[in-house]
Design a protein that fits this description.
Helices cover 28% and strands 30% of the residues. It has one domain: Alpha-Beta Barrel (Multidrug-efflux Transporter 1 Regulator Bmrr, Chain A), CATH 3.20.80.10. Strand 6 and strand 7 form a beta hairpin. The termini are far apart. By secondary structure, the chain is of the alpha+beta class.
């Protein structure tokens, strides 16, 4: 199969733009707060408070969908095509399959001081959603986050959960803390699985 050079070029440009945008936005980022209940090596159980997120859904391959989703959310928090001040960047960027299984959902967690009422209204591509407080099993790892690597860490996390009699209460999510051009060993990534009470 021969690749269309225009599509490849557009994908590369989107990835570079997303990476540069992340670097600029993350200069003064905050990390989403959580309480660690248990830790064993790279594995942990955490309690997250209610979170307010801006989210968008993109179709296509995972990496290109993540780049497109990131750019749409970056436009929102930077104030492109809307009134209001810039919203500070918060890490991690959350990423998972959307509810109907047809696309990929990218989420930015909004800083804790905002409410649905005080956030600027988003455009058509972005929705504001409140996630309830929840308990999460997590595994942290450094390096590349390819499909195969994410799948392997998900399998390891599910095995660790079985050993600790923890039951999943939702689909897997991915959390990314660094721009794509960060050297592999310096990248922080996580696989997250919501837990049943």
């Amino acid at each position: 199969m021969q690749l269309n050079p225009k599509l490849v070029g557009a994908g590369v440009a989107a990835a570079i733009a997303a990476g540069l945008g992340y670097a600029l936005l993350a200069a003064q980022d905050d990390e989403t707060e959580f309480k660690t209940l248990e830790r064993e090596g790279a594995f942990s159980v955490r309690d997250y408070p209610r979170l307010l997120v801006a989210e968008t859904v993109s179709l296509g391959m995972r990496e290109s969908a993540l780049s497109r989703g990131f750019l749409a959310l970056a436009d929102y928090i930077c104030g492109k095509d809307r009134d209001g001040a810039r919203i500070p960047m918060t890490v991690p960027v959350l990423f998972d399959g959307d509810d109907d299984g047809r696309g990929w959902r990218t989420r930015f967690v909004m800083p804790a001081r905002y409410t649905v009422e005080t956030l600027p209204a988003p455009g058509e591509e972005v929705a504001i959603r409140s996630l309830p407080a929840r308990r999460i099993a997590a595994v942290r790892f450094a390096g590349e986050a390819s499909d195969a690597v994410l799948d392997a860490h998900e399998d390891a996390l599910r095995g660790w959960m079985r050993g600790h009699r923890l039951r999943a209460a939702g689909p897997v999510e991915h959390a990314f803390y660094n721009p794509p051009f960060t050297p592999g060993l310096l990248r922080r990534n996580e696989v997250l699985i919501p837990l049943a009470a």
